[in-house]
Amino acid sequence: MEELTDTQNQHDSRNLAIDRVGVKNLRFPIRVRDKAATEQHTVATVSLAVDLPHEYKGTHMSRFVEVLNSHGPELGVHTIHAIPLELLARLNARRSHVEFTFPYFMRKTAPVTGKAGLIDYEVSFELEADGGNDIDFVLTVKVPVTTLCPCSKAISDRGAHNQRGLVTYAVRSRKPIWIEDLIRLVERCGSAELYSVLKRPDEKAVTEQAYDNPVFVEDLVRNVAARSDQQPNILWYRVEAENFESIHNHNAYARIEKRIG
Fold first, then answer.
1. Are 214 and 161 in contact (CB under 8 A)?
2. Between the CA of residue 113 and those of 56, 108, 174, what are the distances in Å?
3. 3-state DSSP call for residue 17?
């Protein structure tokens, strides 16, 4: 076979290293174990990247995809942890970054009638390797909740405005932590939970629960942070909340980040 020019390995004279270079927005099937001791088969959007020293013109993009596909047509969680180290070796890099973002489903029952339905949550695995034995792993869940405004309740003669909020909750932990446990922690911190199936008695119960439990966006992040502080397995967390305001043309936002211990 004819030997072709390897342009990526050519020298670059600008003396500028690149922090991350690679591929993004690649879809790939994965298996994720849930707390019920079963597996969910889902599809992740994948990003793979490494650092690039200043002397190299480019990286070898095909090698990222080769590493991803080398484990077969479907990845498991344990396999994912090996990929950052394989990228270091295949691309002669000092640092690698891998991210898998995927929909994760939980079955929830309505609070009064018990009607069941599935709710999807966005989950991300972020992994970084720097050549050592440890891999930095961050688990992130995006959890929708209902929030009811304490100020509106205090000043209004009839009802109070409420909205759907989205909490983005990222953690580092001492040992593996269930996705379901993080989702449930967040859902307990809003005014009320979200459900996919609600009959009239359920809707009455949920709206009354929200009215009895008003929270600002500030309350929401503080509630999640306070519960996180009580979890001995959590080493670090970042909680962000965004309320999609129902009577304003802007969103309300708050964030807390903390390393424990």
1. no
2. 63, 12, 39
3. coil
Mean pLDDT in each 10-residue stretch from start to end of the chain (261 residues)?
65 83 96 88 96 83 94 87 94 94 97 97 97 89 97 94 96 95 98 97 97 97 98 97 95 97 71
Helix (H), strand (E) at residue 183: helix 179-187
Q: CA 161 to CA 153: how far, in whole Å?
A: 8
Instruction: Check: CB of residue 107 under 8 Å from CB of residue 117.
Output: yes
CA 224 to CA 244: how far, in whole Å?
18
Distance from C-alpha of 209 to C-alpha of 190, rounded to nearest angstrom:
10
**Cβ-contact 98, 23 below 8 angstroms:** no
Nearest to 241 by CA among 171, 167, 164: 167
- Three-state DSSP class for 126? strand
Q: How far apart are the first and last CA of the chain?
A: 58
pLDDT value of residue 6: 63
- The verdict on pTM exceeding 0.85 is yes
H/E stretch holding 210 reads helix 200-212
User: What is residue 15's three-state secondary structure?
Assistant: coil
Would you say 210 and 204 are in contact if contact means Cβ atoms under 8 Å apart? Answer: no
How far is residue 76's CA from residue 209's CA, in Å, rounded to a whole number? 39
- Alpha-carbon gap, residue 181 to 188, rounded angstroms: 11
